[in-house]
Amino acid sequence: MVRPMTSVDRERVMEIIRATRFFVPDEIKVAEELIDIYLSQPEQQDYQIVVAEDENGKVAGYMTYGPTPLTEGTWDLYWIAVSPEVQGQGYGQLLVRYLENEVKKKGGRLVMIETSSQPKYLPTRKFYEKLGYREMARIPDFYRPGDDRVIFGKYLGEKE
Ligand SMILES: CC(C)(COP(=O)(O)OP(=O)(O)OC[C@H]1O[C@@H](n2cnc3c(N)ncnc32)[C@H](O)[C@@H]1OP(=O)(O)O)[C@@H](O)C(=O)NCCC(=O)NCCS
Question: In the chain, what are the domains?
Answer without folding.
Answer: 2-155 (3.40.630.30)
